[in-house]
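== Folding task for one protein ==

=== Format: two labelled lines per protein ===

==== Paired sequence and structure tokens ====
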Amino acid sequence: MELILVLHNIRSAHNVGSILRTADGLGVSKVIFSGYTPRVDDARVLPYLREKLNKQIAKTALGAEKYVENYAVDDIKAELLRLKSDGYVVAGLENNLDAKKPILQMKLANLSQIRSALRSKAVLVLGEEVKGIEKSLYEMMDLFLEIPMVGRKESFNVSIAMGIAGFYIMNLVKESS
């Protein structure tokens, strides 16, 4: 399984660092930053802010920011279209959806269905910590994945959710094929 992550409008540099570290551990092939997501060596910001962001990301990435291929794009829709034309399936990680796209819950009973839907090349889109994926990006998704919640909270932290979904996609799903 080849997995690419898209971090769109993630607010926290610490979440970005944590996602990079987890992505490295799972074997994610690359991470794409878009929107206002903090990024490593961001040329768009003043040098002192760039240094501050780099330190914040590095605090939780623990060096993974140097090992996981990562880059930023200005037009995420164009990038997703390019990836789709290269054969990637684009999945949004979201919860509490009322979308017209298929929603597959990440449950053991759904492994073969998820594996069939994702094939061997997938992009997992993660959105803003509170509001989730921008509604304007919904049209770009081939499907949505949802982590079922059983507690009182409605969602996981975005970096934790990526770890759960990433492990599921990279390990459990390939075992079912």
In short: The chain has a mean pLDDT of 90.
